[in-house]
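Write out this protein's structure.
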Amino acid sequence: MPMFSRKVILRALACAILAMVPFPEQENQIYDLKVKALSRTYFNRPDSIVVVEVGKDDFESLRKKFGAREKDRGGPWRERFEALRNQFFWDDGVYQSLLRRILDENPKRLLVTFFYSESLISLQENPSLQRLARNQAVLWASQFDLDQKLLKPASELTGTENYGFSNLTPDVDGVVRRGYLLQQNHISLPFRALVDGPETLKTSMPLTNSFLVGFTGPPGFIPTCNVQDLFSEGENRCGSLKNKYVILSPSGNIVAGASLYRTPVGYMSRGEALANILLTAQNARAVVPVSRYLIFFAVLAHALLLSKVVLGSPGRRQLLVALLLLGGEAVVSLLLLRFFSLRMPILPFVIGTGAAYLVFLWQKFAQQETKRWQAEKKTQYLRELDELKSNFISL
C-alpha cells in the first residue's frame, strides 16, 4: 500500500502552489519584525566606524569659531537648500579646521555625505584647503537627481575620483532595506571607501544588483558623536579616529523630517544607514533570500506530513502538530537570519500549513461521512434481507 495516495499528493501540491502566491508587503513587514527582534541581540558595537553628525546650529557655532572672514570668502555668506529639505552650508574656515582635525588622527577614510556642487565651492584662493579636500583619505558625496542623472561634486574637491553617490533607495513602502555598491556604472560612497582603502571586498557581495542590508543593531547602535565634540576641551566623546571610517553626516531631525530614513530597525540618520551598508559590504553580511524552489518543496513536505497527522490522529493532536510546525519554521527562519544571513519568509508556511490543515480536515470529514453512509446502507440492506427472510419463512 503506498504511503500517500494520489488524492493526498495532489491536494498537498495544490496547497504548496497556493502558498507560493507572493504577498510582498506582508512579507516585508514580517521581515522587519524579525530584523528588529534580532537587532537587540547584538552586544558588540562596531569599533571600525564612527558617525559624526552635523546640524545647522552646530555648523553655525563652528562658523563663529573657525569661519572665514567675509573678505576671505570672496562674497556674502552662501547657503544651499539641499534636495532632502535640510540646510547645509559651506565655509572655508570651518572645513579647513574640520578636515585638519580629523585627518590628523589618520582615519582609514573620511566620508563626507554632504553634496557640494560647483556653484557652491571656490577654492582657487585657498590652496591649503584644496590640498586637504583632495587628500586620498577624504571621499566626497555625489548624488543622483530625480532623473537618475549623476551629479558630481565640485571638481576643486575631487582632484581624482575620490567620490561616490550617497543616495539611499527606499522600497515601495518607504523603508530602506536595500543598498547598492554599483548603480548605473557609478560607485557608491561606502564601496569607494572599501575598494580604494586597505580593506578588500569579499567576492560574495553582489556588485550591480541591490542587496538586503544586514543591520547591526537598532538606531544609535553605531558609535555616533556630534561634530562639536571633536573640538571640545573636555572629554572627546568621538574617541580615537585612528584607522576608522569616519562618516560626516547631517544629524537626523524627526520634527523636520530632514535626514531620517525608515529602516527595518527604526528611523536612522543618513550616516547610520550608510554605516550599516559599509559594514555589510566589509563583512560580506548581505542578507540572501532563500530559493523559492527550496521553500516550495519545504511547504510540500509540511503539507504531506500534516496529511498523515490529520487523517490518522485525533482532533487535538492535529492542531497541536500544525502549531508546532509553524513555530518550528519561525524559529528556523530567525536562526537562518541571525547566523547565516538568509531570509526565509514565514508567510508561505503559514498559508501552506493553514490550507493543508483545512483541506485534509475536510477530506477526513468526507471520508467519515462516506464510511457512515456505507454503514447505514449496509445496515439497511441487512434489515431488508432479514425482512425478506422472515416473509419467506412465513410463507
